[in-house]
Amino acid sequence: VVSSYDKVPRDPKDWQFQGSDDGVTWTTLDTQSDQAFTQRVEMKSYTVASPAAYRHYRLNITANNGDSTFTDLAEFGLFASKPH
Fold first, then answer.
1. What is the pLDDT of residues 50-70, one digit of tens each?
2. Is residue 63 a contact partner of residue 14, using CB atoms and an 8 Å limit?
3. Digit-coded pLDDT (tens) for 16-51
4. Hey, which residues does 32 pair with through a beta bridge?
5. Are strands 56-64 and 27-32 parallel, antiparallel or unpaired?
6. Contact 17, 78 (CB under 8 A)
7. Is 16 in a helix, a strand, or coil?
8. Contact 1/46 with Cβ under 8 angstroms?
9. Distance CA 80, CA 24 (A)
10. pTM
């Protein structure tokens, strides 16, 4: 997750990373809360608590850091580690 160049109050703070095979029923794979970015365009990596393969993924942002009308992030990426 990469914070945007925009204002800190628009950064995502609480979210669930979710997966779905049908785009209707979602399974929560990881939950983060009280996240804060100390810099603009800062990348933070998170290890998924319950990794699994799905057809669809979403970042369900439930709160940001204070802006009640707008949430912003620069980038969201999925990376897998190669098995040894």
1. 888 999 999 999 999 999 899
2. yes
3. 999 999 999 999 999 999 999 999 999 999 999 888
4. 15
5. unpaired
6. no
7. strand
8. yes
9. 24
10. 0.88
